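W.,

You were right to be curious about this one. When I first looked at the sequence I had no strong expectations either way, so I just let the prediction run and decided to look at it fresh. Below is the sequence, 534 residues in total, followed by the output.
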Amino acid sequence: MTTVVIAPMLVVLATAVLTLLFGSYPRLRTGLALAGTAGYALAVALLAWTVVLAPGAPGIATYQVGGHPAPFGITLVADGLSAFMLAMVATVGLASAIFSTRYVHNIGYDRRTFYNPLFHVLLLGVTGAFLTGDLFNLFVWFEVMLMASYVFVAYYGGPQHTRAAFRYVALNLVASAVFLLAVGGLYATTGTLNMADLAQRLADPAAYGIDPVPVVGLFGLLLSVFALKAGLVPFQFWIPSAYRAAPPPITALLAGATKKVGIYAIIRLSFTVFAGADVPVSLSVPGTDLGIAGASPLAFVGPVLFAMAAASIAVGGLGAIGRPSIEGVFAYSSIGQVGFIALPVALAAAATSEQFRRLAVLAALVYALNHALAKALLFLAAGAVRSATGTIAFDDLGGLAERAPALSIAVFVGSLALVGMPPLSGFFGKFLVFEAAIRAEAGGALVVLLAGSLLTIAYATRVWNRGFWGAPSTAVTDARMDRVQVAAVVALAAGVLAVGIGFDPVYEFAEVAAEAALDAEGYAEAVDPGGEAA
């Protein structure tokens, strides 16, 4: 049982090493990369089935690296939440890997040799972040993920790519420093970084001699770091340039996978670690009646995260409407769409009802799945258009629906999924987010969601009218679509449709994931039975 927890990491690490060793043999390297990604997907499926979905499954499993017990050793934890996120990443990763088998032929030989190893190192960092059971190793896996993404943003080496990489690296280096500062502060304050042990100690700070006052500020630092990783306003500046600079298969991974690491970290720490903390919050703005007060750090998370989510929906939607290219629209759209994911998390943090929290976290997870599938689809489609026509600027496009009907139908499906049309995956995600806002009686949230939905319709319509409708332009007339690239995009579109039509098992999986996020006691018991080491 414990070995299955580490299986996805071992598969992707082995693939990274093998593709590096055989980098001089293009066909073998490509075959290894594709087989390794498929093996990773199978390992994730095995983990999800064995630990979470099978009849009588335990719901949570741990792996103590080196046999050292928690909280002193390195702990890997697989539960419903991490399994759900890994399934999302495996799906997007496999589609991106298939697309990459043809896309790498369009880049120089020297870049092709390290593309696949870096691709799998990126997957390794994401996987480690979802499975780690302590804060310091969450920092380590963030850095592994970022190291690979730094190279991919600067991959082509042009002036615009260098500028995008500089901005991306600078912001993330600052975030990493803040992350490390917060981790060090929490260790100095609580004496532990193991998430399960941290939750136990914060639930009774007096018993462990913990001063609870600094904890809120340190959690605020962590929240800012995770918001930057997720691309929430006001930390969204790196997204448009980085997404345009990276190769399209990597952009699909950045939007579909690495962004979700930030969302995952917010959910995991907010509800598994800090929800039960006996750490009162009392913050106020001098000279005003404005302030935040509550019995736990979640009183701080709720309003702050809500403001970030609302601003992201507005900034992303308005920014997407005026972009001159397909990639530009989709990049700004990612800012807005992540706001739809974060908003129900904010409502859950502000609530005290366990039942409502479960609904709100469930809504966020279902919407995150839709965003991962739809946005990966759209970025891969943009890459296919660029490969075939040499451009993604609206002024040079038109008539793609006539020239590439299969690709166009897939893009239409992805766009409708973002809008939230039934029976696609986006309908259920948006329905649950609206339901959470209605049950919370949050009028402001409903206004934001409605405005964001209208903006989504506006920029999705613009992409279709400017790029796919009308008479074919010269670039489109001369285009030759790559069948493998189109197949990867169509497969994701089929996935979006399949999730919508067969939503019941997806809902049950997401419900298990939401329950796992809120079950701090079960998490602590699985990692450190009896709390003996604490």
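Here's what jumped out at me. The CA atoms of residues 71 and 194 lie 5 Å apart. And, maybe more interesting for your project: The two ends are 24 Å apart (CA to CA).

Coffee later to discuss?

I.
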